[in-house]
Design brief:
The complex is a heterodimer. Chain A is mainly alpha-helical. Chain A contains seven helices and no strands. In chain A, helix 3 runs antiparallel to helix 4. The longest helix of chain A has 30 residues. By secondary structure, chain B is α/β, with parallel strands linked by helices. In chain B, 42% of the residues lie in helices and 16% in strands. Chain B contains six helices and seven strands, in the order H-E-E-E-H-E-H-E-H-E-E-H-H. In chain B, the strands form two sheets. In chain B, strands 5-4-3-6-7 form a five-stranded mixed β-sheet. A two-stranded antiparallel sheet of chain B has the order 1-2. Chain B is elongated, with a radius of gyration of 24 Å. Classes of the chains: A mainly alpha, B alpha/beta. Chains A and B meet through helix 4 and helix 5 of A and helix 4 of B.
Chain lengths: 151, 197
Amino acid sequence: MKLIKFVFIYLVLTLSFSGFSTQAWCMIEIYEFDNATQEARYYALIDELRCPKCQNQNLANSDAPIAQDLKQTTYELIQAGSSDDEIRQFMQIRYGDFINYKPPINSATYVLWFLPPFVLIIAILFWVWHIKNTRNRLADPVNKNMNKGDL
Amino acid sequence: MIQNQSKSKLIYLLPLIIFIGVVAFLFTRLGESTQIEVTSASDQAVPEFSLPNLQNPSQTLNATALPKMPYLLNVWGSWCIACSREHPLLVQLKEQGIDIVGVNYKDDPEFANKYLQDEGNPYVLNILDADGKLGINLGLTGAPETFVVDSDGIIRQHIVGEITEQIWQERIEPCFAAVKNIGSNVSNGNNISQVCQ
């Protein structure tokens, strides 16, 4: 019994230290940065960039092989001294606007960027108009009489 | 007074009208694919590379090694199941005289060469992209992916995923034929982007 236990532990240890297992299963990326700013930039970028393979995940949350590679690329570009915009551009050239969860403002994205604030403005205008209208109606003598009559 | 009332009634109908509009819009999208394919490589040149030849790793390949006539660029790996499903079709295309350049993507050269021996080799040339950097420059999302490249080295079509007989007939073959004709008929140039969607 003891021997079996020993062999098992031995196997687990050798397997976990062998090159094969680290290559095949070790999916945790460990990146070393020169300073905290670089690290913060890295995490901000992989949070903002989208995995091109998966429909709704950013690079940070995706385990797709291409996401791993793009994280690696982001790291390498930061180490090589690229600015955030240069990295975004690098990805955009290869994967289009889809790659970024913060798409640029251009003719194709006007609706995306400006429709929600436009709808909000319309809603506020409608609300203001509605309040004014009700006040006017209350101020209207006919309505006043009606209200009196009701009361 | 009565007119005013009917006007205000209309306003209360507005949300319902908007709702019907939204329903109509959503209805037209029913059954459509929600999958977004990232195919931004189209109309760009094949990215520069300097990588080993799979069959002869001591030889370094670059753009000068690529065919000067239209060809298919196929990204594959011996580990990739969808690649082995499309492989017989690639072999068939080779027999039809179509040049296919392989990008052996993130693979072990030993496994890759064995795979080609066993399954047949449809490629005129295989670029060994061990770390996937060429893949990223191609805007790859995974293997397999296939690109139609014209005689000037410009990518004209980007097919994400496995190619089937149907995709070949409906999408790739018309594009490939149009790209082939571009040399003899310059006015076809504008049609290419339409045919090669």
